[in-house]
Design brief:
heterotetramer, A: alpha/beta, Rossmann fold, B: about 325 residues, 5-stranded parallel beta sheet, two-stranded antiparallel sheet, 12 helices, about 45% helix, binds thiamine diphosphate, binds magnesium ion
């Protein structure tokens, strides 16, 4: 174990995979200078500008070219900078990358990883703060990963790079500096296996990405109030660990899903509906109101799902 | 149209070969159109009748291991690249044994065995994908090249700019071919396209570009050949603007009332198969041989069509196959 | 009342609104020849090519230019041909149209209507068959309308054109020829008010767009089996008629939501979760499996939500 | 750099006015940067220090009722168009009384009162929006024009092609201005841009295009003036390529280690305010007057900054206002 940041974990994962497999390469704007958040720092020195490739401001070409390069046997890691800019390349991701294997009858695969940093991050406002993970979970052909810890950002990025399906890989911008223990060696986290952050018997809380940390703090508060919440970090939204969630929710009899994304049409709806359909237990979601994200801190904060709101929702579900 | 006097030294055998290929393309599409009438081809069909010289010429200049990407109007390109006519007709009929197992249909026809990486239902989308295919070739230090064919309507979409710039910046082995038939669906492209046209735009983005008579199969092939040689030698991307005319409607059901009959009639006289035949005749090939090329092609497609109709549909389980490995619906993960 | 087709209803709605308001104009590829499905037939003759405007194949410009034109006080009706092609203009719709009013602090409005025909339509395959209404319902700032009848296609298109918010207006391609009664006069259907297609006491079925007709047939079958299903056509997904659905579901005690779109992350999840949260009753969704849409009829049909499946789901929920 | 000898007949009063405006822009951004240090400006800031002549020159050629669209680096354009410096600083600090009520911040600054339709956080996005704004002007038969400023990095995005083609096809009253500072964030744009550059690309799409020294405020203004006159006369869209240099990092926190110090030092000598001052000096304007322009600008921004800091934040209810009318979260509809 060593203690490294979420950003460094991803950097190491990419470097290790690039050493392991010559066909892995990364492409995006400013990568040669380390990327916009520094998550590619030092890599061009080791791998050269062909494999840590700069790109013009051409999101459609960055993603579209990567589809072609993936079909031709390389494994591109595509940097979109902010998930918001990936909206300039949706045809390439949704109509092309996600569907090529199916519509060509299995003649090809599109093994690419699209890194789309998500979330609110110090007054970034409406075009640099979105969390659209539920969109991609709705699209057949795509895998959706939302790591919440340094260990997962290492192990899941490796799994993403090794995956033969196109993976939408959503790091949370607020987590870059987060430090945590990361196992030594070839640490790979399989997709579709949730992580129980904290066991509990009174209620199941499901979350992912940065919101997991808010929920963990809420669970601490609740523990002090005599309520034992079981917290599950979903890690991947597609596939998602239906078994773990069903098992936990059946045991606790209550399910709360919390995410930073807009609640209406968010992936919390999928999980809540899925569990309600099968268990008929109390379900509740906590997601952002259906409003864009504002610049001024109070406006931004007004759409954040806080620890306090999480505590209140749980207490309410328990009739306390 | 009279045979080109500069073509005294043409390779007759080769022209004959292209003539046969053009007839195969046309006969394939005529079978597909018949499939529409017979209600066995269910999805949209975009015929390339009248445009066969571009498929035959450009693809004639490619190696078998070179890569080709096409458009919604891609039957000719696909057949020329070496796909089986029977597999293609099966695909158009949505049957087992189709190139894509019946799951893609006309707009997604592809044959990766022969390096044909797909038609595309989204105009212009293949331009960036082609640039990326060439990017992979460069990264892998292979000597293949990529050829990407698209229509004159596609030059107004963003991927045209982004894909050409990409190919030029990274000096990639790709030949872009604009198959200019004057129309985008029911719209004359000239009415919705500003500036000097495809080649001028390509040059402005740093690509060497040439224009060619797209109904002259030998001219297309010669020009493509020279460009491909330069590309294969590491010269970076090139751009070929080939002018032609779509003799049919936009789709198999479009009667094209938006253009005057005399325009179509005039253009019919310049169509590429006729022109090749005239060249062959002028060079002394007997009329019977020329007719035989057509008859053979029609017989091939007749048989392929019959085989396609006889083939079964894929089962519903195909709906869940090849979606994805991780979280595949085939694995009960939905 | 007159009996006209779903397509003709929309054509009349547009023509009437263009007569009423000189600032309404339509733009898209091939409109001058009536549009790809004929839904603009005859309009250029009346309104001229400036107001029934052709466009280059430039989805980003068609939608982006309409954002600018809407901010400058005109009311563009934007034709995207197939909702799939609107994926070439997602930045323009989601980052620009949907957010301009908010991020500019209310200085502007973006009154545009984006027509995005959805759904499966005779072997159109993976890139011409998608139903992505849940995406737009997730985006703050957007209104999402999915008419199912000629009357609604007239009244809702009029409402969309008069709306000051950007409206994603999703007609179903299979419905173009559907005939039905349309009220005379200035028939405008307000957004957010569901339509009860059929009253019933045993179960509430919620649906929208073409799927409503499948559900209606299923309800007929069920009636023959002694099961009275209440069928609600939601009409608009944002805003959606929460009151009508809650009231009905509370009364029947069971909710089934059926849609053609992929079930995972579909808008059915939102409704099911919403109702389960509030009523704790049995909820169930019926949506497509998470697979692209294939060309061959059996492959295409395998992901269709049929009348039989609807009947079976209802019977199962009723323990029959 | 020596005063341009061809400029013997310059309008001193006017140049003085531009000099003042350029100082106001610079002082505003210096206040914004100080706001970063003071941790009151929270979001990203993209300074245009060294590029002020383009804002001052281009906007100087616009009428107040003309329309302007800008980029993430849009403070100068916005101030030049007539926005209040205090409202702008309030916006950058996310306060009540900001142009967007504190909800947009630097990247979404806009002032519709003065025809400034917004900065944009998405590179290139405003190019198509500007074309559409011009389209509305044409439909409404108004005689305003639209000016759209974007960076040299934006010319590689699809909307550049689509927006310019749109403007040309519909013959719209719009002036596109490429503010070429040589960089896109940390990347030299020359390394990622193929072909002859912005003006060559624009011409290929059918627009008349000119290049201008973007650090020469009078040259920018004169060229823009002539182009705008042609546009207003119904001549259709025009394209201006203005070369400049970004003296700061890409953002307020970027130290720009990716470029040599001597390059920056050399470019500092050519910066537009200095050049305007030299012209003024050469024309006999006393040094004290020139210094006064700066001092006044700094005093204005000092006061505006103080007022902004003193202003309250908007309340959380603003998060739900102006989202939409139908199904607004403000109406409890979530
Ligand atoms: C992005 C996109 N917009 C619109 C369409 C609908 N469409 C299909 S083919 C076509 C015309 C294409 O014209 P062109 O590129 O010249 O090719 P051609 O059909 O003439 O071969 C259009 C508009 C589409 N498939 N994709
Ligand atoms: C579509 C998109 N891609 C990437 C970014 C991130 N980004 C912001 S500014 C910038 C550089 C823009 O360069 P240029 O257009 O030359 O403008 P400049 O910053 O030099 O004024 C980049 C890449 C973005 N905002 N939008
Ligand atoms: Mg064409
Ligand atoms: Mg720049």
């Amino acid at each position: 174990m060593s203690i490294i940041s979420y950003m460094e974990a991803a950097r190491q994962a990419l470097a290790e995979e690039m050493r392991r497999d010559k066909l892995v390469w990364a492409v995006g704007e400013d990568l040669g200078r380390g990327g916009v958040f520094g998550q590619y720092r030092g890599l061009v020195e080791e791998f050269g500008p062909e494999r840590i490739s700069d790109a013009p401001i051409s999101e459609a070409a960055i993603l579209g070219a990567s589809v072609g390069a993936a079909m031709m046997g390389t494994r591109p890691v595509v940097e979109m900078r902010f998930s918001d800019f990936a909206l300039c390349a949706v045809d390439e991701l949704v109509n092309q990358a996600a569907k090529a294997r199916f519509m060509f009858g299995g003649q090809t695969r599109v093994p690419l990883v699209v890194r789309e940093p998500i979330g609110m991050w110090r007054s970034s406002a409406a075009q640099h703060s979105q969390s659209l993970e539920s969109w991609y979970a709705h699209i057949p052909g795509l895998v959706v990963a939302c790591p919440s810890t340094p260990a997962d950002n290492k192990g899941m990025l490796k799994a993403a790079i090794r995956c033969d399906d196109p993976v939408v890989y959503m790091e949370h911008k607020n987590l870059w500096p987060l430090e945590g223990e990361v196992p030594e060696g070839d640490h790979v986290v399989p997709f579709g296996v949730a992580r129980t952050v904290r066991p509990g018997k009174d209620i199941t809380i499901v979350s992912w990405s940065a919101q997991v940390h808010v929920c963990a703090r809420a669970a601490d508060v609740l523990a002090g109030q005599g309520i034992e919440a079981e917290l599950i970090d979903l890690r991947t939204l597609w596939p998602w660990d239906q078994q773990a969630v069903l098992e936990s929710a059946a045991r606790t009899g209550r399910l709360l899903v919390a995410h930073e994304a807009v609640q209406v049409g968010g992936f919390g709806a999928e999980i809540a509906a899925f569990v309600a359909e099968r268990l008929g237990i109390k379900v509740r979601r906590l997601g952002a109101p259906r409003a864009p994200i504002g610049y001024a801190p109070p406006v931004e904060d007004a759409v954040r799902i806080s620890e306090t709101m999480t505590v209140a929702a749980v207490r309410d579900m328990l009739g306390k | 149209m009279a045979p080109d006097p500069h073509r005294s030294n043409i390779d007759i055998a080769h022209l004959r070969d292209r003539h046969r290929l053009m007839w195969r393309i046309r006969a394939l599409e005529q079978a597909a159109l018949r499939g529409l009438d017979d209600k066995v081809v269910l999805g949209a069909i975009h015929p390339s009748i009248g445009q066969e010289a571009i498929a035959a010429g450009v693809v004639g200049a490619l190696r078998r291991d070179d890569i080709l990407l096409s458009t919604h109007r891609g039957h000719g390109h696909t057949l020329a690249k070496g796909a089986s006519s029977e597999a293609m007709l099966r695909e158009l009929l949505g049957r087992v044994g189709g190139n894509c197992g019946g799951k893609g249909g006309s707009m997604h026809i592809a044959d990766f065995e022969v390096g044909m990486l797909g038609a595309n239902g989204v105009v212009g989308a293949n331009i960036v994908i082609a640039a990326g295919a060439a990017h992979a070739i460069k990264l892998k230090r292979e000597d293949k090249i990529v050829c990407c064919i698209f229509g004159d309507g596609a030059i107004n979409r963003g991927p045209f700019l982004e894909g050409l710039n990409w190919a030029a910046v990274f000096n990639l082995p790709v030949l872009f071919v604009c198959e200019d038939n004057g129309f985008a669906a029911t719209t004359r492209t000239s009415s919705m396209t500003a500036g000097g046209g495809p080649a001028v735009r390509a040059r402005a983005i740093g690509l060497q570009a040439e224009e060619v008579d797209g109904n002259d199969v030998l001219a297309v092939e010669d020009t493509a050949q020279a460009m491909i040689a330069a590309i294969r030698a590491g010269g970076g991307p090139r751009f070929l603007h080939a002018k032609t005319y779509r003799l049919t409607g936009h789709t198999g059901v479009d009667t094209a009332p938006y253009r005057p009959a005399d325009e179509v009639a005039a253009r019919k006289l310049e169509e590429p198969i006729l022109r090749a035949a005239e060249l062959l005749l002028g060079a002394g090939v007997p009329e019977a041989d020329i007719a035989a090329d057509r008859a053979e092609a029609e017989a091939e497609m007749e048989a392929a069509y019959a085989a396609a109709i006889a083939a079964p549909f894929p089962g519903p389980e195909e709906a869940f196959r090849d979606v994805q490995d991780v979280g595949s619906p085939a694995l009960g993960a939905f």
